[in-house]
Amino acid sequence: DKWRGINFSGYDAVFHVAGIAHVDIGKTEKEDQKQYYAVNCDLAFEAAKKAKEEGVKQFIFMSSIIIYGEDISLRKKRVITRNTAPMPSTFYGDSKWRAEQKLTPLNDTDFHVALLRAPMIYGSGCKGNYRLLRRIALSSPFFPDFPNERSALYIGNLCEYVRRLVDSQRSGIFFPQDSRYIRTSGMVKQIAGKHGKKIILVKGFNWVIVMLAYAPGKIGRMVNKAFGSLVYEKGIDISFSGIDDKPV
Fold first, then answer.
1. Is 241 domain-assigned?
2. Is 242 a domain residue?
């Protein structure tokens, strides 16, 4: 609670990135579930309210594509548009969505609330799915060359996006993503190459991937999540342009 003692009045914007994520929901206890909402939702609202009361002009909240749920499948490419309704399927996604709903009414002409619904963030130091892919890239000599597409955002591009957002003092919902979709196998190969490792992409494993995608329970979900296609439509976010893709 040390942040409560900080005077926000000297700042033009607050970028709120505090949160809890990437916990195995199947093993989450009720107390842990409460913490999701306390940190991802309530803390964000309290920080925004304090910022507004102390004269800050803009509050940027780091939300996530996860608010649209984890309905990812090998059988069908899922494309999210501005009109796609949020349908969170995890405590993490639901807590982010509830935070957005609490923050939005704070927006007015003097206090601008910006909601960033980011896809997977990749680059040095990133956690979650990227960290798992990095671990695989550095330890395995082979990886399935399965065709899929995912929206993603390089950490450097995120920083530049936020800088432009602060400079513009914009409010609203934003969908930052790299100009090109990624392919899971392509990203694994790039990560390996950057660290001097060689990895062979094998199409012969693809039939195994397809079969595992139909497996019940956790295995099926993990395979669909890793190799399914989930993207924001091209042109969904036209507020900023010219951010280049960077190597992983």
1. no
2. no
